[in-house]
Write a structure and sequence with these properties.
Layout lengths: L4 H5 L4 E3 H5 L4 H10 L3 E4 L2 E3 L1 H4 L2 H9 L4 E3 L1 H7 L10 E6 L10 E6 L6 E3 L2 E3 L2 H11 L3 H13 L5 H9 L7 H12 L5 H11 L8 E8 L2 E9 L4 E6 L7 H15 L4 E6 H6 L1 H24 L1
Parallel strand pairs: 5-6, 11-12
Antiparallel strand pairs: 1-3, 2-3, 4-5, 7-8, 9-10, 10-11
Helix pairs in contact: 6-7, 7-8, 7-9, 8-10, 9-10, 11-14
Length: about 300
């Protein structure tokens, strides 16, 4: 019979009371708890001290034996959208279930049936629901905002799903702010820089109407243009400081722009520094090139 607590718990870092009692006596189990060799996470769930502080272990233990799903910021962390903050893990149960949980666990009640997916090896709410729920419960909204952008960028959810979740919560604190973000995501923004550029540059006075994330197929290669104007065949690329700063990425950008040019499109690129430091100058340049290309294309059509 194995009488080592770590060996009985195994790689998962936690186990149940019944599993332990299959191998050791009740007195041995209580002695291990008293000596600190095991930590009681819930009445029938135990973990090694080294694992008890791990939020993943606490979430798995909290979900064990319950009709529940990981939710809120814990779900966002399981989806890989945020770092789990210090503090409790979150799970959601149906309205008829008990909302009592062990220490370090916050239990929420859902008005209807639980919608469940799998992420990080656990049952979780869908990403859109986790974003909206976290928006109301997490004080660090910029983190949730970044999670929403990343979820859409990685296609874990669509803006329409975020809208549906918002519609379910008409009294959500900060609802208008999140709604504006969802509108920008629906328009095609996929980063904070694109959102900033859209609001402060592309939608400035007198600017043409841009299509964001415009899909272009050239020589069998699919290219996504950050922003594009069809009538002037003008593409505007908003280059983040980190991603586009390397020599390798600059060379890739040049190859991409040359490929797009073979289809008749001209590309204007704006660095993070120039875009945020001189938005009016960026607007003037975009508008000047747009106007010139419209004339050029009109002259070509006339001939």
């Amino acid at each position: 019979m194995v009488c080592d607590a770590a060996a009985l718990v195994g790689a998962a870092g936690w186990t149940t009371r019944d599993a332990l009692l299959d191998a050791v006596s009740r007195s041995t189990l209580e002695r291990w708890v008293t000596a600190g060799r095991l930590v009681r996470l819930a009445p029938a769930v135990f973990a090694l001290p080294s694992s008890a502080r791990d939020w993943r272990v606490r979430a798995a233990a909290a979900l064990h034996g319950r009709d529940a799903v990981a939710s809120h910021v814990t779900a966002l962390a399981l989806w890989g959208l945020v770092e789990h903050p210090p503090g409790p893990v979150h799970l959601t149960v149906t309205r008829g279930s008990s909302n009592r949980g062990p220490a370090g666990v916050v239990v929420h009640r859902a008005p209807g049936r639980l919608e469940s997916m799998r992420a990080g090896g656990l049952d979780v709410v869908p990403p859109a629901r986790a974003v909206v729920a976290s928006w109301a419960s997490t004080p660090d909204r910029p983190v949730v905002r970044a999670a929403a952008i990343e979820a859409v960028r990685r296609r874990l959810c669509r803006p329409a799903e975020l809208r549906r979740e918002l519609a379910r919560q008409p009294r959500l604190p900060g609802r208008a702010e999140l709604g504006r973000l969802v509108d920008l995501l629906a328009d095609g923004c996929r980063s904070e820089l694109e959102i900033w550029g859209c609001l402060h540059v592309l939608r400035g006075p007198g600017m043409p109407v841009f299509e964001q994330q415009r899909r272009l197929v050239v020589a069998g290669t699919t290219v996504l243009l950050d922003a594009a104007v069809e009538e002037s065949m003008l593409a505007v690329e908003l280059d983040g400081a980190a991603w586009h700063g390397s020599q390798q990425q600059r060379e890739a950008d040049l190859r991409r722009d040359a490929l797009v040019a073979t289809a008749g499109w001209q590309t204007l690129r704006f660095s993070y520094r120039r875009l945020t430091g001189s938005p009016e100058a960026c607007r003037r340049e975009i508008l000047a090139v747009h106007t010139a290309r419209r004339r050029l294309l009109a002259a070509d059509e006339a001939h």
